[in-house]
Amino acid sequence: MLIKGKFLYGExxxxxxxxxxxxxxxxxxxxxxxxxxxxxxxxxxxxxxAHTHIADSSIRxxxxxxxxxxxxxxxxxxxxxxxxxxxxxxLKEGIKFGLNELEEFGVRYFCDFRENGISGVKLxxxxxNGSKVKCILLGRPNNKVETEEILKISDGxxxxxxxxxxxxxxxxxxxxxxxFKNKLFGIxxxxxxxxxxxxxxxxxxxxxxxxxxxxxxxxFIVHGVHLKDNDIYLLEKYNIxxxxxxxxxxxxxxxxxxxxxxxxxxxxxxxxxxxxxxPSIFREMEFIYRLYHLEPKEILKMATLNNAKILNLKNVxxxxxxxxxxxTVINNNVFLFSKNIVASIxxxxxxDILNITI
Length: 358
Known about the structure:
Elements (H helix, E strand, L loop, with lengths): L1 E8 L4 E10 L2 E6 L5 E9 L1 E7 L14 H5 L5 H8 L2 H17 L2 E8 L2 H12 L5 E6 L7 H7 L2 E6 L5 H11 L6 E6 L3 H11 L3 H7 L6 E4 L5 H9 L4 E3 L1 H6 L15 E3 L2 E2 L7 H12 L3 H15 L16 E4 L10 H5 L7 E2 L4
Helix pairs in contact: 3-4, 4-5, 11-12
């Protein structure tokens, strides 16, 4: 396939106009031959959302001004009580609505922390039929007996937070997880100061210290708002990435991560619960720029190449030879008069995304 257009090419994000060669689902470079497809828009690496709870789409804006524990702590947080009262059909409608939103926001892959054990995984898989957005689906076992079956039908395991589980449960689930190849193990860590203080009081260790002392090494952690210095050292030592969800952290009033201290780690971006946030990674990127004033290219890298690395998506996250043709296309009008194309990308709105799938 020969695709003519304007591309954000390579790790330096250079604008390259030309005809891209795609063969066997791989970018091969550029050609002078006549194109098969012409795209009028800026073609950028496909946007990836590395952390969602999409079933929460059915219960939007519950619990305004509630604390994190009151709202989402399992098993009796407000979210869990509301979801328990939702019919299967309402949950499916909410998930499908969320999938449409992800597509409209230019997301090509998303990683969902699916709750409610085996049935929760199966519910989301039903909804994914026909969706253009690809899901990295991590299931959450209600008990250790479910763990193996969840791993057979999903892309890995997610857990709420270490404080919710006994040592034996954590070790057993991780032991079963290790039997499988190419699966992911994600967990929330240091999301709020109360979780850190509870762990220190009960176990004399932070959540991350406890996990690693139990020989439970996550593929990645989510949030990391209140990491201690030794936590950051351990993340660096064991090459454990962090998925940031800064808008969600502020919504829930738990603080914000110290990105400066995390700069030597692989950092990705997610949007967290659908009930409190839109799944727009563009809004997440713009928010992070306004809050932290990082280099726009570094922020875009978090949402593309870094997220791909965290989720073990091979040859995804760049437009470059050897990579897969996973693209998000943005209306050219966004860049009229722009003096910094990547900075302008961070301000993209839903209506700026062109519904083009290669």
